[in-house]
Amino acid sequence: MKRRLIRSRMVLSQIIDKILDINKNRKRLSYRDNRSQAASDFEEELRLLNKMAKKQAMLIQHYEAVLAGQEHRLPHLRGR
Q1: The predicted structure's pLDDT at residue 34
Q2: d(CA 28, CA 8)
Q3: Would the pTM count as exceeding 0.85?
């Protein structure tokens, strides 16, 4: 379980790094010719990354609760 927690934290960190990179690139859009297409691409990628980050954060909370001996906060994850 501890390995899963560490792995989930690493994945969340990578997702956050990708989100930060996209936000940096969005600031540079004013210099590109095809801004509207690039902006919509960034928005779509950010939407997916935010969903992934939310799921990873929920998993981390679940693993921390299990390791702390608390009752499961996310009953739909008990079978995993």
Answers
A1: 67
A2: 31
A3: no
Measured CA to CA, the distance from residue 77 to residue 51 in angstroms comes to 17
Per cent of the chain over pLDDT 90 is 51
Range of the domain at 31: 2-77
Q: Which residue has the tokens 């990354």?
A: 49
- Name residue 36's amino acid: S
CA 10 to chain centre: 10
| Long-range pairs for 53-60: beta carbons < 8 A, 24 or more residues apart | 53/12, 53/15, 53/16, 53/19, 56/8, 56/11, 56/12, 56/15, 57/12, 59/4, 59/8, 60/5, 60/8, 60/9, 60/12
Report the number of distinct structural domains present in the chain: 1
pLDDT tens track for 32-59: 666 777 778 889 999 999 999 999 999 9
Can you say whether the dihedral through the CA atoms of 8, 10, 15, 19 is positive or negative? Answer: positive
